[in-house]
Amino acid sequence: MGADRYARTETRKDDRSGSYTRKCHTRAGELELKMPKLRKQTFEMAIIEHYRHRVASIEEALIEMYLAGVSVQRVEDITVALWGTRVSLGTISKLNQRIYGQIEEWRNRPIGSDFPYVYLDGVVLKRSWGGAVKNVSVLVAIGVGDDGYRRILGIVEGTKEDKVGWSGFLRHLQARGLKGIRLVLSDACLGRKESIGDFYP
User: Fold this and answer.
1) N or C: which terminus of the chain carries fewer CB neighbours within 10 A?
2) Is residue 142 within 8 Å of residue 151, measured between CB atoms?
3) What does the domain layout of the chain look like in residue ranges?
4) Count of CB atoms within 10 A of residue 191's CB?
């Protein structure tokens, strides 16, 4: 505010107007914070952003649990055991919507440089969904740039390793700007071999 309590000075920007309590979830459990109120400005804390009720590490842990296949109900129970507070199903859902938005943004980002060497492969992963564990096919492209560093160029889930699946994936990579390929490295999957020539002869 530019002034000490009760000080009368030309540098004063605002006046205090009491305080209110606010709960905050941390790794040490739930804290009750006493927040000062100002007449004109909004008070901002360095510890936690305005309108948030959990520190970032708690939110990251909730997202990690969900992405690892822990059910939403189980995540709720774990939060009680770890931090002594229950996080609502709606809160977990909102956090996951935010992370899925970031994942989609990453998946569709432009590929801004040439990649002379590209590794293509299909991987089968186990995924927990609705209490059942199922196999999920994932197509992956890893490029090696002129600088010698490897980068994951693209990942698509739920696509079979047939010509249709690989063609769709290669079309997606080409649309995002993948170019400058001199060598594609892969196993002898027939669907992949048939589709590579259509996009990168």
Assistant:
1) C
2) yes
3) 16-106, 117-199
4) 16
The DSSP secondary-structure symbol of 34 reads E
pTM score: 0.60
| pLDDT (tens place) for every residue of the chain, 201 residues total | 777 777 777 777 777 777 777 776 666 567 777 877 777 777 666 655 544 545 556 677 777 777 777 777 777 777 777 666 777 777 777 777 877 888 889 999 999 889 999 999 998 888 766 667 788 889 999 999 989 999 999 999 877 888 889 999 999 999 999 999 999 999 888 888 888 989 998
- Name 14's Cβ contacts closer than 8 Å, sequence gap at least 6: 1, 2, 38, 39, 40, 41
CA dihedral 118, 124, 128, 134 (to 10 degrees): 150
* Contact indicator for 177, 111 with CB cutoff of 8 Å: yes
> Tokens at residue 13, please?
């920007």
